[in-house]
Design goal:
alpha+beta; two-stranded antiparallel ribbon
């Protein structure tokens, strides 16, 4: 009863109290974050295919669309998106929350086996349960130490063969990528006039070089108690 009596006897204090309550309520409504649903990360699988020299249009037409036609029947897919760029195509699959990602990986791999054919010089697709659109959580920069005169760009193969695998073995790391540097390569310099004089096209020359850069098995034969394996070594060393 004293609360009611005090409210009647002091109306100004009551009105000021109500104004403060309403004011704090409005401030809380707009300033305090309200989250009705928790952040749920949908499981995703990325199919990444490299095709050196392929334009975005060619990558999309000859690789990405062929993969999408087979992958669209994978069970549990919520959304399928793709990205095509110079020399690379990616298909990102998002699945329902709670999907067994290991079983989905097997299903995706089986579907990719049904793609009829890829361009001759395209790499086989790489499957990973990582969204390539996600931002990197860490960047590491490789530099030469003082006194090392070797160009840092020549360390690409070292980073690819030694540093990258060690990062990927760290628990919780989905994938690691290397940017910059130059891969070791063999360059063939040719005389176009000499090719034209002999009626040889650039494609024929490339096919000849590619076919010669290989080791061939000649079978095996037994000689007494010994067994010999015959091979023809043709792979380029220098």
């Amino acid at each position: 009863m004293k609360l009611i009596e005090s409210s009647i006897l002091k109306p100004v204090s009551v009105i000021v109290g109500v104004i403060f309550i309403v004011l704090f309520g409005i401030i809380s409504l707009f300033e305090i974050p309200v989250q009705l649903t928790p952040d749920v990360e949908k499981p995703s699988i990325t199919v990444d295919t490299s095709w050196v020299g392929g334009s975005p249009t060619e990558v999309e037409t000859e690789i990405v669309r062929e993969q999408e036609d087979e992958l669209k029947t994978v069970q549990g897919i919520v959304e399928m998106t793709s990205e095509s760029s110079d020399g690379r195509g990616s298909v990102i699959l998002e699945f329902l929350v709670g999907t067994d990602i290991d079983a989905a990986l097997v299903d995706v791999s089986n579907k990719l086996q049904q793609v009829k054919e890829y361009p001759a010089d395209a790499d086989r697709p790489v499957i990973s349960n990582v969204d390539v659109r996600a931002n990197a959580i860490a960047w590491f920069i490789l530099k030469t130490t003082d006194g090392n005169e070797i160009d840092i760009n020549t360390y690409h193969d070292f980073a690819e063969d030694y540093i990258k695998p060690r990062f990927e073995r760290v628990p919780g790391v989905g994938s690691s990528n290397i940017f910059g540097g130059r891969e070791r390569e063999m360059q063939v310099v040719f005389d176009p006039d000499s090719l034209a004089a002999r009626g040889i096209s650039l494609q024929q020359m490339a096919q000849a070089i590619d076919s010669e850069n290989d080791n061939y098995s000649g079978g095996a034969f037994d000689e007494g108690k010994r067994r010999y394996v015959v091979r023809t070594i043709g792979e380029y060393k220098t």
